[in-house]
Amino acid sequence: MKKLVLTGAAGRLGSYLRDPLSKMCETFVSTDLADSIENLADNETYVKADLSNLDDMLEVLKGADMVVHFGAYGDEAPFETILGPNIIGAYNVWEAAYRNGVRRVVYASSIHAVGMHKKTEFIGIDAPHKPDTFYGLAKCFAEDLASMYWDKRGVEAVCMRILSCAKVSNARAVSTWLSYNDLIRLVTRAIDTKVTGFSVVYGVSDNDRAPVDNSGARHLGYRPQDNAEQFAQEIFEEAGVLDPQDLANACHGGPFASVPLGNSGIAALNLKSDDVAKK
Description:
Layout: E1 3-7, H1 12-22, E2 27-32, E3 44-48, H2 54-60, E4 66-69, H3 79-99, E5 104-110, E6 123-124, H4 134-153, E7 156-162, H5 173-176, H6 180-192, E8 198-203, E9 212-213, H7 232-239, H8 247-250, H9 255-258
Helix pairs in contact: 1-6, 2-3, 3-4
Organism: Shimia thalassica
Pfam family, one: Epimerase
Keywords: NAD, Oxidoreductase
């Protein structure tokens, strides 16, 4: 690949992806709102750019083969906060990809696009959208946008519905964990699979208790290798008995399913201070 672009490169997950992605292309461009980022690879250029500005996206995607789109406001918030980076930003990325002849968008979607489904439902990649928040609603918009741009304009897309890519620190994560190594495996397969069309895949490790079914996305070749069961006993002893009537325990979206619209879901996840989830 000649040129690969990563949005959200200054974020936690983007930071994990920069090194492996730089090895997959001749020219690697990382972009975010930060003024600069450190430890650039030899073939990496950083460009400060705003997702909500179409001209910025047109410029940064010029000559790109693919874009890995991780840029977003990474939590539930009032709709006005989500609108610019997550909804308008998604349109700008796909429109800029189309105008520049970019072959594929690899998109960091989220379980929150289907977060109000019950955890007792073993949902597949064909589960209908059922967002739990404005944040999840924006993911639904981007997935539908990706589908339309494939159908109407031939831009391929892989929409990765990430569950919990953070250290296992709560009972929900024993089933929803996506290890950082499996994240890299997932993104790599989304890039190097020869033909994807429009594809949806869940971003989750090979957990014994994984609540979603990826069998419909086997064409992507994603085979996770890590398992959160190693953390189960300690986490469950600490958590105690959970209330099954609480939507945070009953729905795939976890706390995002129970918080009032516009209120932070991450605040209720009990994450480590240096490991705040972005997806």
